Amino acid sequence: MEAWLPDFAESLGRQNADAFDLVIVNDGLDPGSLADLQSGFNCTILEPSGENAANRLTGFRRLLRAGYSHTVFADADDRMSPDRVRISVQLLREFDIAVNDLDIMGTDGEIITKGFWSGRLQDMAPIHKNDLLNSNMIGLGNSSVRTSILEDLVLHQDIQALDWYLFTLLLYREYRAVFTTRTSTHYRQHDANILGAGTGEMGEPALKKWIRIKAAHYRALKGLSGAHRQKHAFYSELESKIDEPGVLAAHMASVSRTQSQAGSQAGSRPESRSGTQPGKANPFWFERV
C-alpha cells in the first residue's frame, strides 16, 4: 500500500475544491509513509481499533464528533479525478449519498477501463435499496455522504463485505442516493483489494470464499425483506453443501454461463447493464457467484 501513497497524495493535491480536511484511519501503514500527507494537508491520523468494522466505526465517530457536514470517502491505493471532492459536495446538497463512477486502473496506474459503472447507470440516476440486493456498486472508494447519516450504525465483525452491508443498511433507512458519471475514482487492481478478488480470477478457492461471504451477508440482513430471506436460504444451503462432490463444479458452471452471456451482451451494445467492456477482465466477477 505504501508504494501507492504518492499517487494518492498527488490526486488529493489536484482537487479543485475549497479547503478540506483529511482524516486517515491508519490500518497498518508505516507512520513514516504518511509524512507527505501530514505536511501537505490539514490531516488527522487515527490509529486502528481492530478489525475492519471497528476501524470504520472509529473513523465515522471521529467525523461525527468533529461536526463535518459532508464526508468524501477514499482509499489510499486509488486516485481521484481532480473534481471529485467538489462535485461530490455539490451533489450532497440535494442527496444523502453520492456515488461516482470507476475507472479501472492497473497496478502500474494505467487506465484499463473507463466508466465501469456507466454501463449500468446513467448520470444522475437514483440508486434504490433493491439495486443492492444481488451485488454492490458502492464502496468507500467511490462514495460520499452527509456525515449525519453515519449516526447509530452497527457493523458486525463477521461481515467481510462491509461496504455492501453498510450501504444496504443506509438505503433501507430511506436515505437518497444518486450516481454520477461527472467524476470518477481510479480504482487500482491488485491482489489485496475487494478481499483478494481484484485480479478477476474465478478459481475454486475464490469461489468458495465468496459463497461464504455472501452467506454471511444475507444471514446478517435476512430481517430486512422477504427477498433477503430468500437469498439467505439459498446461500446458506449452498454453503452447507460447498464441499460435497459436484456441488461447487455445478455452481461454477452456472456462474461461468452467466458471465459468458453478460460478455455477449456487452459485445453487442455500446453500454452494458453488466458494467463491463468486452475483452476486459471484470474485477467484480464475484457479483454473479
Which terms would index this structure?
single chain, 289 residues, two-stranded parallel ribbon, 2 domains, 9 strands, 7-stranded mixed beta sheet, 36% helix, Spore Coat Polysaccharide Biosynthesis Protein SpsA, Chain A, alpha+beta, 8 helices
Structure commentary:
It is built from eight helices and nine strands. It is α+β, with helices and mostly antiparallel strands and 289 residues long. It folds into two domains: 2-190, Spore Coat Polysaccharide Biosynthesis Protein SpsA, Chain A (Alpha-Beta Complex), CATH 3.90.550.10; 200-288, no CATH class. β5 and β6 form a beta hairpin. α6 packs antiparallel against α7 (226-240). The model is unreliable at 195-199 and 265-280 (pLDDT under 50).
How many E strands? 9
CATH class designation of the largest domain: Alpha Beta
Looking at the structure, the CATH topology of the largest domain is Spore Coat Polysaccharide Biosynthesis Protein SpsA, Chain A
Total of domains: 2
Order of helices and strands: HEHEHEEHEEEEHEHHH
Shape: globular
The structural class is alpha+beta
Mean pLDDT across all amino acids: 87
Instruction: Please name the CATH architecture of the largest domain.
Output: Alpha-Beta Complex
Beta content comes to 15-25%
Determine the N-to-C terminus distance.
28 Å
Going by CATH, what is the homologous superfamily of the largest domain? Spore Coat Polysaccharide Biosynthesis Protein SpsA, Chain A
**Number of contiguous helices:** 8
**How would a crystallographer describe the biggest sheet?**
7 strands, mixed
Low-confidence stretches: 195-199, 265-280
